[in-house]
Design goal:
The protein is mainly β. The protein has no helices and 9 strands. It has one domain (2-73). 0% of the residues lie in helices and 53% in strands. The radius of gyration is 14 Å and the shape is globular.
Length: 76
């Protein structure tokens, strides 16, 4: 089983695949991922998800902070 960390946190998101996982960092928290087959995303606070394609784009959602007037990463 191959595993990569999608988003490090106190309860980390991980992507697992039977095949080799290839990752290209596109910057700004965006990852272009090829799972080589079925990918399984695990996270302790949510249910398990399976990818529908071996080609996946992972991004960090950003929100506008009205106090600072800046974009910031959204956290679940």
């Amino acid at each position: 089983m191959n595993t990569i960390v999608l988003e490090p946190s106190t309860n980390t998101h991980r992507l697992n695949s039977e095949s080799e996982i290839r990752v290209e960092d596109l910057g700004a928290g965006i990852l272009k991922i090829n799972t080589g087959g079925i990918g399984v995303v695990t996270h302790g606070e949510h249910g398990t998800l399976c990818t529908e394609s071996e080609h996946v784009i992972k991004y960090v959602q950003q929100e506008f902070n009205p106090l600072t007037k800046k974009l910031q990463n959204a956290y679940d």
